[in-house]
Specification:
With 133 residues, this protein is mostly helical. Helix content is 67%, strand content 3%.
């Protein structure tokens, strides 16, 4: 697969690199940081199993593509690869919303009278000062 599509991968890399170069300055650091973020995004542990399950059959499809036909596969393919992450964060957002709603529905925190927690010898009847309960 890499050999068949090597020219297209190289062209895409050069185009992306050129875009960063046009930004001037420390383009290489920005480029490297962006590539690291992309790598880290697709390596997130909570989604890794679903991502791999999605990516594996796609690898077989890409391997069967003739040279020059990768672009037609890439856009919808990237959307498919991203779907496990979108679903994970959609579920996480739903969890956060449900948690906030649950927390909002709870009564106020129990108010404690600080006088109850004052040390007293009356509880133990001895000379040790223990906090009353």
């Amino acid at each position: 697969m890499l050999k068949v599509h090597a020219a297209r991968f190289a062209a895409a890399h050069r185009a992306l690199e050129a875009e960063y170069r046009r930004g001037g300055g420390d383009w290489q650091d920005r480029f490297d940081d962006s590539m690291t973020r992309v790598y880290n995004y697709f390596a997130q542990p909570p989604v890794r199993a679903r991502f791999c399950a999605t990516a594996l059959p796609m690898l077989a499809q890409v391997a069967d593509l003739p040279a020059g036909s990768l672009d037609g596969f890439a856009a919808p393919g990237l959307g498919s690869l991203d779907e496990p992450f979108v679903e994970f964060y959609r579920a996480y957002d739903a969890y956060r919303i449900a948690l906030a709603q649950w927390q909002a529905g709870q009564g106020p925190k129990l108010a404690v009278d600080p006088q109850i927690l004052v040390a007293s010898t009356e509880v133990t009847g001895g000379s040790y000062r223990v906090a009353a309960r």
